[in-house]
Prior knowledge:
Layout: H1 6-13, H2 17-39, H3 44-61, H4 73-92, H5 118-137, H6 140-151, H7 156-163
Helix pairs in contact: 1-2, 2-3, 2-4, 2-6, 4-7, 6-7
Amino acid sequence: MQELSLETLQRAQAGDLEAYREFVTAxxxxxxxxxxxxxxxxxxxxxxxxxxxxxxxxxRSLPRFDPARGTKLASWVFTFVKNxxxxxxxxxxxxxxxxxxxxxxxxxxRLPAPGQGPRERLESEETxxxxxxxxxALPREQKLAFVLREYESLSFAxxxxxxGCS
Length: 166
């Protein structure tokens, strides 16, 4: 995930459309993946709407973000995503669904590694299903931490800030 420059952030806060585009470019994929993994694959059709709602609310809230407080923009964004997803799950009572029920590995379908034979591919898919079941069985805060660390590669400090814990 690319970081936005302070100048781009300030332009976005002032309503500059090109800066908004840069903001979307920087965060669209990570936000989409995180939402997909937090609300479940069974609601793939709703993920796009949820992501769009998140961006609208982020843009409305962006002028209130103050980088001088020491909070990283990514921490602020993913805290927002986490809270919004948990609110959606509460409001709609959407159950989380194991990733293997979707028949693929989420929005970033993985291609077999070059030279990977059928046996290796089958073993890889079985491992992915096992991991997906284990992740799905985690309590939501642990699931959040795992998704942000393993799929979004955020640091433990940033994850702690997003989760509101040490």
